[in-house]
Specification:
This protein is mainly α. Helices cover 75% and strands 3% of the residues. The chain contains seven helices and two strands, in the order H-E-H-H-E-H-H-H-H. One of its GO terms (molecular function) is G protein-coupled receptor activity.
């Protein structure tokens, strides 16, 4: 049913836009590949990283919205078309507003190597990681609940395909987003210094980049 899928397709498109904005942030780190450490004003870095940070907010909240949309279409199939989808937009906008506020609240004039976490300082990094982790834990719970609900309906080939797609999303896409902020939170609790956080931060981001890279196969090859 095209009508049933329209909201989900729109949310996936918004996810894609968020992921593209997010990946623009990696361009600022390109000199690091050649062992070139450029330090710029934190204000300039905030301007450069604003759209990538919004991309992260959009991407994380969109994953949750896609999961909620699929869960509602299964649990409340008869009433799904009449449900108000405005809440999805409010969730995405709210996530962006929070991260924008966190960037402003964490701002401190200084010279720094510009990367995704540079706009946040100390507690700001902790709050950013915890907020991202919370959203993605909620996503994992929603997808897992939907997957469990679909198991009882998995007699048809279409239900089995949906079941498989949800399983892949949880294990690859959502898990990638869970591991990275989870590691950031652990590193913060362990009291890593700035240099350690900088180095281990790049390692942690591998999991998110893997999740982003395979989205084409997750959302379209398994539909």
């Amino acid at each position: 049913n095209r009508t049933l899928r329209s909201t989900c397709n729109l949310l996936i498109a918004i996810c894609a836009v968020g992921d593209i904005l997010h990946e623009f942030g990696t361009l600022a780190q390109f000199p690091l590949l050649f062992n070139i450490y450029l330090e710029i004003d934190s204000a300039l870095c905030d301007y450069i990283m604003f759209l990538p940070e919004m991309g992260i907010s959009i991407g994380c909240s969109c994953i949750l919205c896609v999961g909620l949309d699929r869960m509602l279409s299964v649990v409340f199939a008869a009433r799904y078309l009449s449900l108000n989808k405005l809440y999805y937009h409010l969730l995405i906008i709210g996530s962006c507003v929070f991260v924008a506020w966190l960037m402003v609240a964490s701002y401190q004039e200084r010279k720094a190597t510009c990367e995704i976490l540079t706009p946040f300082l100390d507690k700001g990094i902790d709050l950013f990681a915890q907020a991202t982790l919370t959203i993605n834990m909620a996503s994992a719970l929603v997808y897992f609940s939907t997957w469990i609900g679909l198991r009882s309906q998995a007699a048809s080939a279409s239900m089995k395909k949906i079941n498989r797609a949800l399983f892949i999303i949880v294990t690859v896409d959502v898990s990638g987003w869970l591991v990275t902020p989870g590691l950031f939170t652990i590193f913060q609790k362990l009291g890593f210094n700035c240099k350690q956080m900088f180095s281990w931060g790049f390692f942690s981001k591998i999991f998110i980049n893997i999740a982003l890279s395979v989205k084409l196969f997750i959302y379209y090859s398994t539909r």
